[in-house]
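Q: What does the predicted 3D structure of DUF5666 domain-containing protein look like?
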Amino acid sequence: MYRTTKLLMLAFFFGAFFFGTNAYAWKMLDWPISPTGSYTNREVLEGQIKTLDLETMEITFEKCELIGKEPLRLTKDTVCYKGDEKTDIVSVKGGTIFQKDDKLSFDNLKAGDYIKCNYEIKDGKFWARRIVLTASYLKME
């Protein structure tokens, strides 16, 4: 009886883990995997663009504690969206879902814009995966 109970409890906890349920909060875990199956860094770089060079595909920030004066490099796979201050790009499951209308080209970015981006680090360099141009809300009086 003890052996059967132990196996059932073990199966329950492993089953809850494998199905993505947190056994303590009974909520789905937010794994850092995008819908395409690739790993997504949930940490976010935020800052104001100091310079944007489309020839070398690099962005430098005014003040960004995480990367300092290092440039953020863009690739052909980097996507750019328009958003606002409340746009959530940290959570994979509960994050903001972008529409086709929200997609921007890099030409829409300019110095002085405030952006958020997901990134990855390869060979000690920061590569942008997804950029969100954040527009602040306008106050109407």
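A (community wiki): The structure tokens above were generated from the sequence. Residues 44-135 form a domain with the OB fold (Dihydrolipoamide Acetyltransferase, E2P) fold (CATH 2.40.50.320). DSSP finds one helix and seven strands in the chain.
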